[in-house]
Amino acid sequence: MKKLVALVAALSAVFAFADTYPSKTISIVVPFAAGGPTDRVARDLAEAMRKPLGDVTIVVDNVLGAGSSIGSNRVAKAAPDGYTILLNHIAMATMPNLLRNMPFKVDTDFEYLGMINEVPMTVIARPTMPAKNFKEFRDWLNANKGKINLGNAGIGSASHLCGLMFQNALQIDMTAIPYKGTAPAMVDLMGGQIDLMCDQTTNTTAQIEAKKVIAYGVTTSKRLTTPALKDLPTLQEDGLKGFDVSIWHGLYAPKGTPADVVAKINRALKLALKDPDFIKKQEALGAVIINDKRVEPAEHKKFVAAEIAKWSPVIAAAKEYID
Length: 323
Fold this sequence. Notes:
This protein starts with a helix and ends in a 5-residue tail after the last helix. It is built from eleven helices and eleven strands.
């Protein structure tokens, strides 16, 4: 009888907690630097989710380092009460293979809350690159094996991952030059210190428009509709069959977060993804809002599992790891 009373009391406490959630500030942990593309997504989303969650305050907490694992681990180890959640990108699918010592498990230490968006990527080169189109660019790469410098924003970054996929597709080894962020890598690319980079449209569109870099293709299966990029062919069109890379973002809570709280956050996310102001801001970044079943927690988790399988052989072939 005592056990039954205790169980009823515990369940009553859970339901009471869910009914009052949220009653204090929610922290969205972003495992990348302030001002970067993932940080911008988080800040726009925080504003869009605030009203659906009852005008609660939502703050963004940048906890960066080790290919996003430090910030992600903070959330994995946080109290499962819905007040500390994670916004991360494709790194959720690559950390299991990039990190030699994972302090958490992507598949079991989080409650999946739903996906947010996808951001296309572009292959760009220094402005002095002699190739006028992708065919000539590919010929140049083949002719300069052993001398090609491929920049990225650091191991585990979106540009690093896309660069690995690009090398793998072409079967051409390049010298990876990691930087501490996209900005210094872009400066060196525009200055001709490195040869090429593959990065998100959020980081490359302005430079392409200003003709400070040369763009050779987009990484998605279909051409983009963004005015500055609509004439760029896809890499698949240019012979890299099956090449399809986008940087997606999703939300996560610590394992054990009550189901009713997960449902409330998911509902707020869905409403935010329909918010006209949020949509406008994301479109300006070249991002595509998720409007399919991946916005549901279970489908989001299935998608990440498939992405882990997709990236595993690419990372293993490159033999680039984070200690």
